[in-house]
Structures are given as C-alpha cells and as structure tokens.
Specification:
There is one protein chain. The protein has 151 residues and is mainly alpha-helical. It is built from 8 helices and no strands. It has helices spanning 5-8, 20-34, 42-63, 65-76, 82-97, 102-118, 122-140, 145-148. Helix 2 (20-34) runs antiparallel to helix 3 (42-63) and helix 6 runs antiparallel to helix 7. Residues 4-75 form the J domain. Co-chaperone involved in the maturation of iron-sulfur cluster-containing proteins. Seems to help targeting proteins to be folded toward HscA. One of its GO terms (molecular function) is ATPase activator activity.
C-alpha cells in the first residue's frame, strides 16, 4: 500500500485511535476543494477524480475500526502465524459451544485491540483483530469454514 491514508485525510499520526470528527471535517473539505467539477481541463478533472477516489478509499478504510486495524497492520507487515490462527479458531469454537455472549466478547476484543495498538503491541493487535473477525462472523451467523467445519 503506497498511500498514507492518514496523511491523505490530514491526520498527523498513524494511530488506531483517531479523531473521527476531525477526519470527517477534513474529508468534507477535501471533497469540496478537489471535486472534479471545480476544474476546467479534462486532464485536471481526471487528476481530481483519481485524487477523490483515493480520498474516498482512505476515508472508508479509516472510518471502520476493523478495516483501520487491518490497514495499520498490513502497512507494518504484521502477520499471524498459522499456529496462532489455529488457537483463535479453537477459542472461538469453544465460545460458540459454551453459548458465550458474543456482543460482550466483541466489545472486549475491541477494547483489547485498542489497548494493544496504544501500547505498540502490534502482534497482540493482530490477534485481537483475528478474534474480532471470527466473533463478528459468529454473531451474524456467517461462520467461516474454519469454525463451521467442526459443527
């Protein structure tokens, strides 16, 4: 990923905890100032359209905690080991069997992920992100192959 989505939206630091109202304000300002209709030449309109497309993508990614975490981890090159992925699948399967409150688990997972990012524990943040993905699948009834194959 060559674009710095944080800089593109006028955010100073690459951080999981962001100022969402500031990001929204910056996004709207960029939309107004860079809209292709504000330009006359075809070349300038096309350049503006490409820029706006990048800004839109950055905004959508950073707006969601899950996709923001994925972006930060991918930029940092953080990847989970197969062993840790297997442990997470087993844990989520166990939660499913025990009828655990998934909503509470999702909330705890988000808090743990935010704490891990704040403490620059990127691998732990990646673990929490993976847990969050499985928990969300479980809560929506869309169970990934790794979990549902044991059911």
């Amino acid at each position: 990923m060559s674009e710095d989505y944080f800089a593109l939206l006028g955010l100073r630091d690459v951080s999981f905890s962001i100022d969402l109202p500031l990001m929204e304000k910056n996004y709207i300002g960029i939309q107004r100032s860079s809209h292709p209709d504000r330009f006359f030449s075809i070349r300038d309109k096309e350049t503006a359209a490409r820029h706006i497309a990048k800004v839109n993508k950055a905004y959508l990614i950073l707006k969601s905690p899950e996709s923001r975490a994925e972006y930060i981890l991918s930029v940092g090159g953080v990847k989970l080991s197969d062993e840790d992925r297997s442990k997470i699948v087993e844990e989520i399967f166990s939660l499913k069997l025990n009828g655990v409150d998934v909503g509470a688990e999702v909330s705890n997972c988000l808090k743990s992920m935010e704490k891990a990012f704040a403490e620059c524990q990127m691998y732990e943040a990646a673990i929490q992100l993976e847990r969050l993905k499985y928990l969300k699948r479980m809560s929506s009834g869309i169970e990934g192959y790794a979990v549902s194959r044991y059911s």
